[in-house]
Amino acid sequence: MKIILASQNPNKISEIRAKLPQYEVQGLNPEQFPYELLETGNTLEANALQKARQVYEKTGENCFADDTGLEVEVLDREPGVYSARYAGEQKNSEENMALLLDKLKNESDRRARFRAVVALNWEGEEYTFEGECKGVITESKSGSQGFGYDPIFKPEGYDISFAEMDMDTKSKISHRGKAIDRLIDFLEKACL
Q1: What are phi and psi of 21, to 5 degrees?
Q2: Which residues does 10 contact at the CB level (< 8 Å), separation at least 6?
Q3: With contact defined as beta carbons under 8 Å apart, do 54 and 30 qualify?
Q4: Can you list the positions of beta strands (E) in the chain?
Q5: Which pLDDT score, from 0 to 100, does residue 192 have?
Q6: Do 126 and 49 form a contact (C-beta atoms < 8 A)?
Q7: CA distances from 20 to 26, 88, 129, 154 (A)
Q8: Which end of the chain is less crowded, N or C, counting CB atoms within 10 A of the terminal residue's CB?
Q9: What is the distance between the alpha carbons of residues 162 and 151, in angstroms, rounded to a whole number?
Q10: Which of 4-8, 17-21, 23-27, 84-88 has the lowest mean pLDDT?
Q11: What are phi and psi of 144, to 5 degrees?
Q12: For residues 11 and 184, what is the distance between their CA atoms, to the nearest angstrom?
C-alpha cells in the first residue's frame, strides 16, 4: 500500500521506510513540490497537520507528515518548534548544535527531550500520533549516524548519542520511532 511522507529529507525517509516495510513510503516528488512545505504553526502538532494538509490537498492521496522538536529543560524548552531554524532560516544542523552547546556551556542541568508529532491524512480524515524520548545534551558532538541534533543527544539508559547508534536501535527508542509505532497500530486497524 502506498502512502506519501511529506518530506524530501533522505535521512528521514530512509529512517521511516525502515519502520514501515509493509508500505510503499514515498517522499515528496520534487517536480510536484519544488518548494518547502509551509510550517507556520507555533506547535509541533500544528506544523505536522499543516504539512499533511498541503500534500493531501495537492495529491488527494493518503499521506503523513511529522514535526520534531528538541526541548531543553533549563532553556524553557528551547529550541522546541524552532529546532530546525534555531540558528537561522538556513536550517544548518552544525550551527544549530553550536548555538545550543554555547547556551549550555555553563549549565550542569542538561536534561532534554525530543518530541515528535506525526499527522496522518487518511481517507480525508486527520489523526495525530505523538512520541517522546528523554535524555541529556552532551558537552560535545560524537558519532556520525543520524542527522540534526543526534550527535549531541544521549537518550536515557544509554552511554552513546543517537549519532552513535545503528538505525534499528535508534528507531526502537526514538521519539519519531514511538510516534511511527502509534501510526502503524492505527494503519493496521484501519486496513483490516
Answers
A1: -65, -20
A2: 27
A3: no
A4: 2-5, 24-26, 63-72, 78-80, 111-122, 125-137, 153-155
A5: 54
A6: yes
A7: 11, 33, 15, 25
A8: C
A9: 6
A10: 17-21
A11: -130, 5
A12: 20
Q: Which residue from 8, 149, 174 is spatially nearest to 87, judged by alpha carbons?
A: 149
pLDDT at residue number 19: 85
Q: Is 102 a catalytic residue?
A: no
Residues in the chain, how many?
192
Kindly name the residue from 67, 102, 159, 181 that is annotated as catalytic.
Answer: 67
pLDDT for the residue 32? 92
Task: Please name which of 11, 8, 9, 2 lies closest in space to residue 162, comparing C-alpha atoms.
Answer: 11
User: Do residues 133 and 178 touch, judged by C-beta distance below 8 A?
Assistant: yes
Q: How far apart are CA 13 and CA 2, in angstroms?
A: 14
Q: Which domains does the chain have, with CATH numbers?
A: 2-190 (3.90.950.10)
Give per-residue pLDDT as tens, 107-165: 999 999 999 999 999 998 999 999 999 999 999 999 998 889 999 999 999 999 999 99
Q: How far is CA 86 from CA 46, 81, 98, 117, 155, in A?
A: 18, 9, 10, 19, 21
Radius of gyration, alpha carbons of the chain:
16
Say what the pTM is. Answer: 0.91
Q: Name which of 1, 15, 8 is nearest 150 in CA terms.
A: 15
